[in-house]
User: What shape does this take?
Amino acid sequence: MRYLPRVKRVGSKLQLALPSALLYALGCTQCATSKPETAERQIPPVVSVALPPLTAKATSNGGSVPAVPPSSAVPEANAAPSPPRVYARTRYVWIRPEPDASKEWIGYLWTGGSVALKSPKPVFGPGCMNWYAIEPRGYVCVDGNRATLNADDAVYRAVLPYAPNLSSPWPHRYGESLGLTAETTLTGSPLDLPALPSAIHEPRNQLHRRSTVAYSGEVNVNGHDFLLSADYQWLPKASVTPYPVVKFQGVQLGRDAELPLAFFKAKDRPAYTRTANGEFREASESFSRLSFVELNGERQVVGKDRFLRTKRGELWLKETDAVLPVPQTQTPWGADVGREDETGNAPKGRRTWLEVAVTAGYLIAYEGTKPVFATLISPGRGGFAKPGEDPIEHALTPTGTFPVSGKFATATMEAPGELIHSDVPWTQNFSGPHALHTAYWHDSWGEFKSGGCVNLSPIDGHTLFEFTDPPLPPGWHGVRWLPWLGPSTLVVVHR
Assistant: This one.
């Protein structure tokens, strides 16, 4: 039995498990509501979100897939009939700009996903007998194997309860592999699942120790627990160590706090009080790791130390103990940040952009000239890339100004030593293979950690994925940025 879609190594470089879109992870280690390109789409409110439940818990006698309401259920009185849809039975149901399989893909559907049709009438085109136009654009080949128009298709109904939950920052549950091979996986299925298409699985025979696992179901067979992986393989639970749930999240400016503010990384930091003679002494209180505090702008220098006063009564902090997000003075098009844009140079649309400060370890999101969100990130282990340096080889984060070129709700990545990061959520390419993406396997925000990508916490990854352009259309799992369809969020990365 094969575990887990092919991710290739190119020299020492690493390749995303997408046949035509590459992402070199090097240990780096999407769904937004569709709106007009010019519509306002603010940073969504962050609320306490429950983890997706494990939807199956069978006994040694096996079990059945949790009930899913049949599509033929009687609609409510006076309810408008639902438009016909296409349903994905496997991964990577490619969306083409025209009914032609030779055209480059512009997006894709995913196992258990579906999207509304523009027309119920198929058209013939190269590479497929039945192309269907979908919302909001593009065509999908419906061949009955990878995709179907039948909402009661046995495979689709069986996998639907275990499909990624894209309304949550955590589409699956996650853990670390202790070493998995074809011999250790469960032969057959303890659930009443039909024969699944081969393309639903990732073609891999093993998952090395320290690789990561995404899973969405659990069963017990003859006293042994097994997990249902995101690609519908059964893995021994004893060979997977669940990760703690990472719930760090950034700050919505104007709601949670205002700039200036400070984050604290790595460890708890002492708070200080100022005595009558101007000396600073450690207070009984401290600032917790990954917490934040607002500042009032007052500063005092004592010797080589600079102290900043907080808005928490008489408490101060030492500047070197904190991460201080400092907005850029100008937007990428030359307008002054914090002021009305009078340049006439602003791009069309929402004018969103992200600032990533590699050395300091923070990110600020902007709507035009206004900062709206700030958080801690984990950049490349080697820091920022200098001119002439290969960011891939040295785990560096590239600097410059880049558009978000593609967004993927989940994407499997490979790291050195054939290590795999399974179904990494909220991946946004910005510089060739480099991306902003969730890292569910660590909690070291503000620290140098990745192989060059910009790591985000699950909540932050989800928040920024929904904030940025292009939006992911409803039902899609991945989308490419197409300049003629609208703007893309700019990512400004500096040292």
